[in-house]
Amino acid sequence: xxxxxxxxxxxxxxxxxxxxxGSLDIPLSRVGETQAEELxxxxxxxxxxxxxxxxxxxxxxxxxxxxxxxxxxxxxxECLRNLDHGLWQGKLVSEVRRLQPKVYRQFQEHPRDVxxxxxxxxxxxxxxxxxxxxKLKKRHNGGRIGLIVPQPMASIVRFALVGxxxxxxxxxxxxxxxxxxxxxxPSVAVSRFSILATA
Length: 199
Description:
With 199 residues, the protein is α/β, with parallel strands linked by helices. It has helices spanning 13-17, 30-42, 57-70, 93-99, 101-109, 122-139, 153-162, 169-172, 188-197, and strands spanning 2-7, 50-53, 74-76, 143-148, 179-184. It has a 5-stranded mixed sheet, sandwiched between helices. α4 (93-99) crosses α5 (101-109).
């Protein structure tokens, strides 16, 4: 069985301000740098076959610290790029809630049904993540890998791995500097069934 460590990088200034970062490349804040350091200490001694990293500065800097302590190789995967929030990027979450309350609520309750203006649907992001999951399951028959992905993409990756519900993606924007271990069954059929069953 493959074990996946789903790691959220340290926070950015946008996180502290309550801004939607989406696919914008925002560096770690001072708090985020401390969180990345703490993450690397928490994961020191945890053997990782490979650390797959989202192409964002916060993920890359967090991964750099983790890889230094774990002596593992890193690989940037473009498909792990964060959800593109289009014209919402850079706006305050509270601003979207105030100016577009119906869309805000719909994105909160049924995120797969909403496309931010000039952005990417959650379904499109999920489709690219499902392809990546299948490739990683074939490449790594067992062992342990890390995926370092900012929110809200980390919630979408989690959904692709275990099914269930995607959850409140607005709330997920507040989750950074954490990790969880997810066992992944090698059976492709079971994984696809669980994803389809929740669609």
